[in-house]
Amino acid sequence: MYHKQIKIDKLKFAGLLALCLFQFSAFKALGQVKLPELISDGMVLQRNAKTKVWGWAAAGEKVTVKFNRKTYRATADANGDWAITLAPIKAAGPYTMDITASNQITIKDIVAGDVYLVSGQSNMVHQMSLHNITYADDIATANYPQIRHFWIPTTTNLEGPAQDLPPGSWKSANPEDVNNFSAVAYFFARKLYNEYKIPIGLINASVGGTPIEAWMSEEGLKDFDTALAAIDRNRDTSYVNSFRRQAQAAANANKQKAEQDKGLTGEVKWYETAYEPKGWRNINIPGYWEDQGIKDLNGSVWYRRELDVPASMAGVPAKVFLGRIVDADVLYINGEQVGNTTYQYPQRRYSLPAGVLKPGKNTFVIRVQNFGGKGGFVPDKPYYIEANNQTLDLKGTWQYKVGEVYRPVSGSVGGGFSAQNQPTALYNAMVAPATDYTLKGILWYQGESNAGNPTEYKKLLPALISDWRNKFEQGNLPFLYVQLPNFMEVNYLPSESNWALMREAALQTLSVPNTAMAVTIDLGEWNDIHPDNKKDVGERLALAAQKLIYNDKKVVSSGPLFQSAEIDENEIILSFTNVGSGLISNDEEELSWFAIAGADKEFVWANARIEGDKVVVWSDEVPEPKYVRYAWADNPDGANLYNKEGLPASPFRTDK
To answer: Signal sequence: where (predicted)?
Structure first.
């Protein structure tokens, strides 16, 4: 899984890094206090706990901190490091903090509440802005000045833990700034705030497409030999630089390829209004071109269609919904470029200013580039134009022509090294500098990038929890995480599944003290690794927090979790925890996605019925049953065992 990150020119980045290091050293040498990025205007301090304030100054420099009518003093050590510990305060604010040495810094608008580190890969990254159609009202009505979010820009460090985070700032939840909040984290925070009226701080360290090993410290990976070998190898700068040179060469080659596209190199470009199409063939949108008579093509394919736009939809602002496209696209309307996305995962939602659409005939041209796998338009997504409260369907027959075919590249030129995927790289840069900040708990949504090796993930996830608890030095810090949702094609036969094994890894991690899990087996989309429903994910995490952290006795925080199995002749009787007010089939149909097997472990679909707080499973094909599985698939779409509180049962198996 890949999530686009902001790219900085390497020379500029190197210069910026050098400047930061120079300034950091200068602060110490000149005797000026410098504070970490997290300790800044608008920060949220953890209530009812001792909290640390730290920074850097000249060796031996005396530092005074005034906060909440108390004065604290520290002296910088030989390395220029200093720290003080604030006395616990109740949820309140705003406060001001004055820090004085040879210079003075005033931090304004501080509140005390509950602070959460939120981390993982792209489903935790996904900002509200990427879901601004589904959550348009939530964005427009965001008015929570005491919900605050600190976004940590993506950065890596292969050499060891950094002292500070890259530049960032605390933002409150308002209609403008909430767009950059993690959607999962925002809905988590909003539910808790509405319930308890306590300020919530969110420190967001998440990066798309990253494995769990990148988020762990070297000490945390001590039992994982492959990761340790990679850490040692990456300390060799010549090794790392060789891959960077290859990546640059590959990037240069791709730049040259764009210039070979027939649609862009002719005297008249294929998107221009003066272009007269010749030799174009029919193709359908949505759909992949490999499923429509084009074999194994990586390259650029142009799509073209003339649409009649009614006068009532012309001359006004409009939106074009182009579903999802694999991989990159440029949209032209009447010869004008109106939209562009460079990678496959975001849904295409392009806003058109008034005047782009004309009454009558309009020419739509879409250039699609694909770099691997099937290319084209993902099915089961929205494809239409919306204007003046009317819609115009874009699905159906278009015409296509191939602009360029990319030649296969032998070997792994430029593709063998990604800094953000290396063990410790993200922990060192994005977590280690925050480990002195006092937290209420941690939210974790990750696993897609480790689905190729779920057996190892069963060890890695508990190891991450232990690692972070050791680094934050807050005992059994509450750790809340998301079990992966349903994804990929539905298989209507009992089968093996790596994603099911990943969910089992999450389920088994509940044996780690002070943890809780949000089950999302009903919140995914078969054709999108980034499902649109982020609200229910965040709110299920909030339910888990209400039970685990806030000790709210009235809350049912989870759906049914498998507890035990008893064989009774030709039936297996299953017991569960977290049944809440009782077990139900949420669609009022017969229970589905139960499979049963005898000693041979040849699973077949089973019958299942609810009896009180238990489920009885059987099949006439298996007279001597031994094992049961439930929702054991990549995408058990329609798995319907829930409790009456509306929370789904976790997938499970009784065989090991």
So the answer is: 1-28
